[in-house]
Amino acid sequence: MEKEKTDKRDHILDVAERVFSEHGFDGASTRLISGEAGVNMAMLNYYFGSKEGLLLSLFERRTSTFHSLIQGIGNNENMSSWQKVSEYVEAYINRVFSNNCFQKVVHQELAVRRTGELADKITDMIMQNVIEFRKILHEGIERGEFKNDIDTEMVVATVFGVKAQIVNASHISSLMLGYDTQDPQNMVDKLKPRVTEYLKKLLKAYLLTEHDNAK
Amino acid sequence: MEKEKTDKRDHILDVAERVFSEHGFDGASTRLISGEAGVNMAMLNYYFGSKEGLLLSLFERRTSTFHSLIQGIGNNENMSSWQKVSEYVEAYINRVFSNNCFQKVVHQELAVRRTGELADKITDMIMQNVIEFRKILHEGIERGEFKNDIDTEMVVATVFGVKAQIVNASHISSLMLGYDTQDPQNMVDKLKPRVTEYLKKLLKAYLLTEHDNAK
DNA sequence: ATATATTAATCAATCGTTTGATTAAATTTG
DNA sequence: CAAATTTAATCAAACGATTGATTAATATAT
After folding, report:
1. What per-residue confidence (pLDDT) applies to B203?
2. Superfamily assignment of A8-60 in CATH?
3. Cβ atoms within 10 Å, residue A123
4. Protein residue at shortest CA distance from C1' of D18
5. Which residues in chain B come in under a pLDDT of 70?
6. Residue B84 and residue B164: Cα distance in Å, rounded?
7. Distance between CA atoms of B6 and A32, rounded to whole angstroms?
8. How confident is the model at residue A178 (pLDDT cuts 50, 70, 90)?
């Protein structure tokens, strides 16, 4: 009967992640979270100290196994800059689709004015991603592989923005695309490959020099 | 001394728009809103019935003078499809930058699961925009002006997404771009022209056929 | 038996909303 | 026009409900 060896603490984090993503931090009460998780309300404070502590723990769990993922791509010596961009997009979309509840929470926290430890943590997390991606783009310019008048910051914003529009505003994207973009089956079979392919084509058209592009 | 002829009701809406955009709907208390607006708390319910009614009134004010703006571009007979896209981007970015507080509120409401009249209103508002833009893109494909393998829905998501990433996640964009993207001066002088120019170049590279592109 | 985990009950604070009274403005009446 | 009456606007105070958090007691496990 030991169906799960996952800690109860982890179970709470899973549920909290989903509830936060659906109602937002302020909209999700501790009673709702504990109720959905099937645990006593006091357990939240027992494990995480406070509601904000719960949100903080939620972030720490995800960010712990994240850095090395992207880091490796940029430092690879045997790849062209375009290959790096392509790999980066692939890895980024992969990560987004593998835990989209967490992505929604991040997205919501970015949209409101917050201060404190958590806000700094989120900022750091995003900015490391930004810097790493931008480095690849600058390298591509120096190598002459990319056009030299590209707006690197905007390119970064494009990848993040398209992802946010599709994954985070799921109600709209479902109507736009004609199927439930929240359904896990659709996400893997239809949405994920479509977004990945589109982003690659889009960036290829914008980034590459005419010479490379015509090949 | 008649500095403002704006109704007090309108003043409350202005303040509420800002406070909602900063704290989110659930995070903004009626006490905070009424306090910032310098009016008694009961005035909110007197004018708008409820907190949700306030949010609703806020949306109705903005959507009333919105439809005709975009509508005219798509139906213009004397413009090429690319000109239409270009004009659309210009008009869209213009609108976004002219009332970015409202845009933030919309953005936040899209990110949480809500039901009821307001949710439907927001969905309608966005989808009308989506449909109108998509129509232009399809027309461009039929005319042979655009590539025939472009992903029209993703193109729409790109324009919306880039805007959201820059305007709504202002904390990140400020760090990325190196200046305060909330400062009205910067918005008009730097941010707005930069986003507009970038989106045009990006879409031009992706949409146009090689023939048109090489001109 | 000691430490850890879990519970029901309760806390003060804050939430959105309502109330009843008061003032200002507009309308009706004489 | 002036007095009387109605309507609209505004306020301080309080409402019940819900919030996040804490307690003290109990159960479980080592």
Report:
1. 98
2. Homeodomain-like (1.10.10.60)
3. 15
4. A29
5. 1-6, 65-66, 211-215
6. 22
7. 42
8. very high
Bridge partners, residue A208, by sequence: A146
Distances (CA, A) of B2 to A103, B5, B6, B8, B69: 49, 7, 10, 13, 32
Could you say which nucleotides of strand C lie within 7 A of any protein CB atom?
5-9, 14-20
Closest nucleotide to B26: CA versus each C1':
C15
Distance in angstroms (rounded) separating the CA atoms of residues A157 and B161: 8
Q: What is the pLDDT of residue A118?
A: 87
Residues with CB under 7 A from strand D: A 28-32, 41-42, 44-45, 49-52; B 8, 39-43, 46
Per domain, the residue ranges of chain A are: 8-60, 65-214
Write down the CATH number for the domain with range A65-214: 1.10.357.10
pLDDT digits (tens, 9 = 90+) for A73-98: 888 889 999 999 999 999 999 999 99
DSSP for B190-209, please give it: IIHHHHHHHHHHHHHHHHB-
Per-residue pLDDT band for A36 (boundaries 50, 70, 90) equals: very high
* pLDDT reported for residue A55: 97
Side-chain half-sphere exposure of B32, counting CA atoms within 13 A:
14
Among B62, B63, B96, B66, residue whose Cα is nearest residue B167: B96
Q: What is the mean pLDDT of residues A159-166?
A: 97
Amino acid residing at B87: E
CB-based contact A198:B154 (threshold 8 Å): yes
- What is chain B's length? 215
Closest by alpha carbon to A109, among B112, B195, B29? B112
Q: In angstroms, what separates the C-alpha of A196 from chain B's closest C-alpha?
A: 11
Q: What is the pLDDT of residues A12-28, one digit of tens each?
A: 999 999 999 999 999 99
pLDDT reading at A6 higher than 60: no
Q: What is the predicted pLDDT for the residue at A2?
A: 35
Q: What type of residue is B99?
A: N
The two three-digit tokens of residue B64, written as one number: 């009333």
Does 2.60.40.1740 match the CATH number of domain B65-213? Answer: no
